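Much of the work behind modern protein science is quiet bookkeeping, done one molecule at a time. The fold becomes a row of whole numbers, each drawn from a learned catalogue of backbone shapes. The protein below has been through that process, and both of its lines are reproduced in full.
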Amino acid sequence: MKKISIDQEKCIGCGFCENCNPNLFKINQDSFKAEIVGDLSLEDIEEVKKIIDNCPVKAIKIE
């Protein structure tokens, strides 16, 4: 199964990913960085690819 990862060094906490899919992404209120809060399902893959393509710092990947 594929997983989403977020490069915490690159993430600027803009909230784009959380706004697009709050079931998978959340901005951590302590670090102000995005984190994964859900499991990637097959139904989510196309949407997550669009989120990845539009992340302003390209911090999100599917592994």
